[in-house]
Structure formats: structure tokens, C-alpha cells
Amino acid sequence: MQIIKLDATDSTNLYLKNLMLNSRLADYAVVVADHQTLGRGQMGTTWESEKGKNLTFSILKYYNKLHVQQQFMLNICVSLAIFQSLEALQIPDLKVKWPNDILSGNDKICGVLIENILSGSKIQASIIGIGLNINQINFDNLPNVSSLKLILGKNIALDEVLNLLILNLKKVFSQFMDGEEVALKKAYLNDLFRKDKPSTFKNQSDQMFTGIIRNISTEGKLIVEIEDEILNAYDLKEIKLLY
Fold first, then answer.
1. Between the N and C ends of the chain, which has fewer C-beta atoms within 10 Å?
2. Measuring CA to CA, how many Å separate 183 from each of 87, 111, 172?
3. Which of 93, 53, 59 is nearest to 78 (CA)?
4. What is the DSSP code (8-state) at residue 229?
5. Against a cut of 0.90, is the pTM above it?
């Protein structure tokens, strides 16, 4: 396996993307850094990580004839691989917060940023950035953030977790490529945070409303039931789940 270890970089996603311009990398090539100076999350957010305490890495995945309409399946595959890895480490009360944050209880422990490389209507490859809080215990008063050490009360070897994550990513992507799309989506929905529970949301106009998460559309939109059993579909930028 091709694993490139860095002391520091601006972003492992950016590093891997630039590396692809100059060399042919293997499927599942990995760039892992002790420290990211410009770690990124969904919607342009930053990913803060104490140097040497957590896993911040990116992995390259190639595809053969994957249509752009299937791109949310990549979120499902990555979320399930991380979920299964953390289950194996006995992290309690795991849930996937749409689209791909991983929670223990109400606390975020892992974030994902997937950037796809397109050719027409096909996805050629993805750069999958993963930030997993492992041995960090201070988060500058950030709300609802935790780590494996805070949860389990012990230090965790970073390389062991990295190897476990890569193993599960390969396994879940293999299931996807073998046509198990329906089963994977069912598993994702089963693990989805606040599914079928009355929850409070905020829309683009900062208005709060109550709804119940019922499903995920083929395009990856969140299907929320509001009053009078009306189902609305929301994109990531259109809605925020508060509690």
C-alpha cells in the first residue's frame, strides 16, 4: 500500500490532488499528516486538530464508469467504513449525522470531505479527506466535540486506527462495486442521527422549524417530514439540524 507520511502540510486533500498531477498513484494511495495548517470540512469550514494527536489523512479512490448521479453513495460508503471501524474499537452510541459526520452520543468525533474528479458525467476518482479525533483532549471550548481518548479513557495508536479504516474502506467500496447499493443505503439510514425523531432545524433564512428525518434522496438530499405529513427535500446548504 502506498502511504505517504508528512510532518505538516496545508491540507492532505490538496497535497494528494497536486501529487496526482505529476505522478500515477495507486488506488487507495494515502497521504497522512501529523498537522494540517488549512484542514477543511464541509461548506468551507475549518478542521482544527492538535499536532500529532489525531488522524488527518486523505485517500485516493479510482472508479470505473461511476455516474455523477451516484456521488452520494460515496458519502454512504465512507461513513459506513468509519462507523464500522469505530464500532470495532468499541466506541459507544455511534451515529452518522447527515451527510457524513460521525458522532458518539451528541459529540462529533470525525469529519469527512470528499472531492470528486469528473470527466463529463462520470466520476473518475475521489480524494477522501478524513479527520478523526483520537488522542486530543482539549478543543478550546468547541461545543459537542469529543475524541476516542476522552470516550475510552486511554491513548490509541494512530497507525492501528489508520490501518483499520483503510481495511474497512476497501471492504465497503468492494460491496458497492459488487452492486450492494440498496443494502448499503439501508445500513446508512439505520445509523442516521435523529432519524424518525422530532428534531429542530434552521433554514437559509435562519428560521427554526420542527420536522422528522424520514429518508435520503438518490441525490443525497435530506427528506424531512414537516406538518401535515408533507415531505420536503433539503440540500446541505439549505438546512441545519440543531437538535
1. C
2. 18, 23, 11
3. 59
4. G
5. yes
